[in-house]
Amino acid sequence: MEPLKLAKRLLPACLRLSAGERRRISSAVLAKALALGASQVGIASVQAISTSPSHRKSCVLWPPAARSVIVVALAHPPSRPADDWWDGKAGRTAGNRRLIRICSDLADDLRATWGIQAWRMAYTVGRGGLFVKDAAVLAGLGCIGRNNLLVTPAHGPRVRLGAVMVTVALPSSRPSTFAPCDACHAPCQAACPQGAFPSGIYAWQRCNAQMQKDVAEGTPVRSAEERLEVNRCIKYCRACELACPVGR
Predict the structure, then answer these.
(1) Domain residues for 137?
(2) Three-state DSSP class for 219?
(3) Angle, to 10 degrees, between the axis of helix 94-114 and the axis of helix 19-35?
(4) Is 237 within 8 Å of 210 (Cβ atoms)?
(5) How many CB atoms lie within 10 A of CB 134?
(6) Cα–Cα distances in Å, from 57 out to 89, 120, 173, 203?
(7) Which of 26, 64, 94, 109 is the most exposed, fewest CB within 10 Å of its CB?
């Protein structure tokens, strides 16, 4: 057999896909994520994400075979505040546990249905994850708002983000032209209890001070059987999220 033909036969099936097959898989994956409970979903290339502003400053290394990232957004509206409370259990919050399940099930489906290697990404860069807000913008989910959060058309900044990385180059979603902050008077910045936007620029140190205050004020959660404190329920500040008029 000719060397070129032999090499193609030895390639994983996912790397021999035609452009049409990749588009078909991409459409199916987006639909599957929504069926699993995602509020929004999009796709961005690993190359584009690795050259985004936040990632250029990091030294995180992803598997060499990684080609695309599927970014999943799950709405966590004000009507369900408990979804965002940290409870000390696995996944930290009820909303995050739902998101982890969606991403894990999506990765399982990619492997089982399409034979594509896929894995759920860690949320933090320190654990091999990615700056998921940058990835979400590149995946067409929204824009970075004046509150330093991802702002989506349907849910504003009230979303939780997760990601699944795959070893096949799927067609990327179209970038969003959504720009709601251009004509907004920034109620998000005015609502911040720590004044974390001096001169309109986000100061993470002030935001972190509020987070530490929220931890200190956490409510003890006790075991019903032994009446012992097992962890603390932390209601982190969402003032800038909830003040945003987009997606209400």
Answers:
(1) 13-173
(2) strand
(3) 150
(4) yes
(5) 22
(6) 32, 23, 24, 18
(7) 64
- Per DSSP, the three-state class of 19 is helix
| pLDDT tier, 11 (very low <50, low <70, confident <90, very high otherwise) | very low
3-state secondary structure 51-114: CCHHHHCCCCCCCCCCCEEEEEEEECCCCCHHHHCECCCCCCCHHHHHHHHHHHHHHHHHHHHH
Residue 214 inside a domain? The answer is no
217 assigned to some structural domain: no
Specify the 3-state DSSP secondary structure of 216: helix
Reported as a pLDDT band with limits 50, 70 and 90, residue 226 is low
The helix, strand and coil proportions of the chain, stated in percent and rounded to the nearest 5, come to 40, 15, 40
3-state SS, one letter per residue, for 156-203 = ECCEEEEEEEECCCCCCCCCCCCCHHHHCCCHHHHHCCCCCCHHHCCC
DSSP count for the chain of H helices, then E strands? 9, 8
Q: CA 142 to CA 176: how far, in whole Å? A: 6
* Res 165: pLDDT: 95
Q: Does residue 239 sit within a domain?
A: no
The answer to whether residue 212 sits within a structural domain is no
**First CA to last CA across the chain, in angstroms?**
62
Domain count, the chain: 1
The count of C-alpha atoms lying within 13 angstroms of the C-alpha of 39, restricted to the half-sphere facing its C-beta, is 23
Paired tokens of 220: 């003890």
